[in-house]
Amino acid sequence: MLRLRWLGLLCGFALVGATQANDAEQIVRQALLSIQPDLPIEKITVSPMPNLYQIELKGGRLLYASADGEFLLQGNLFQIQNGQATNLTEQVEQLAIAKQINSIPLDEMVVFAAQNTKTHVTVFTDTDCGYCQKLHSEVAELNKLGVDVRYLAFPRQGVGSHGYETLTSIWCADDRLDAMDQAKARRSVPKKTCKNPIDKQYALGQTVGVQGTPTIILANGQIIPGYQPAQQLAAQALKAQP
Questions:
Q1: Of 29, 61, 150, 156, which is the active-site residue?
Q2: Residue 156 catalytic?
Q3: Active-site residue, selected from the candidate residues 126, 128, 172, 176
């Protein structure tokens, strides 16, 4: 009988703890929405650090807040164990970004596939970008190293720009690979229009924090901002596990 009484007490404490956590989550949510009503909150959970709540935003980025919603932090949370520092924020953000990027259907991308695929990189690209053109000149080398190169559209000058129109023509071309090759070689691409994912991909890039092109995302969600030589990029890509 004594055991049952202790079990009842433990269940009661667990219920109180869960209720308090739910209350804190609601308080944090209301505080955030009071300063930015359109803040794209995905979920709010207790962070690994006591008395700190973790706010996951659409796109994978994180914020942290006190349980009363009075204090808000933006930055990286590190955990130090055995003399080693682990970036917990980066881990969560990468998982969220990888989930979003890897869920995009391949037929919405322009994919240069390796003959013997070992991994992939996803590149937000703009055909008018010099370093995008340089990276594209090394796609064949990346393919030889077992890396698929999967392109998403990110017209730096926005919707309606020259880059936007070129990217639209590529995605609407009968042969997307050839059209991308031509555009990256600074040759004209026949103008075409069709139903396409350019706007959606551009919005996604902004959501996950793309600020320039090329922006490369490894299979595990790690973001590499800018061009890297093929050998260096392949080495990082092959180490990245989703």
A1: 156
A2: yes
A3: 126
Kindly report, residue by residue over 97-142, the tens digit of the pLDDT: 999 999 999 999 999 999 999 999 999 999 989 999 999 999 999 9
The reported pLDDT for the residue numbered 110 is: 98
Q: Which domain holds residue 73?
A: 14-88
Residues 135 and 231 in one domain: yes
pLDDT band at 31 (very low <50, low <70, confident <90, very high): confident
Q: Which residues contact 224 (CB under 8 A, 6 or more apart)?
A: 215, 216, 217, 218, 233, 236
Encoded tokens for 84: 């080693």
How many domains in the chain?
A: 2
80-87 average pLDDT score: 90
Is 45 a member of any domain? Answer: yes
Nearest to 112 by CA among 135, 137, 143, 152: 143
Residue from 128, 129, 172, 176 carrying the catalytic annotation: 129
128 is catalytic: no
Q: Are residues 128 and 61 in the same domain?
A: no
Q: Are residues 112 and 159 in the same domain?
A: yes
Q: Is residue 197 part of a domain?
A: yes
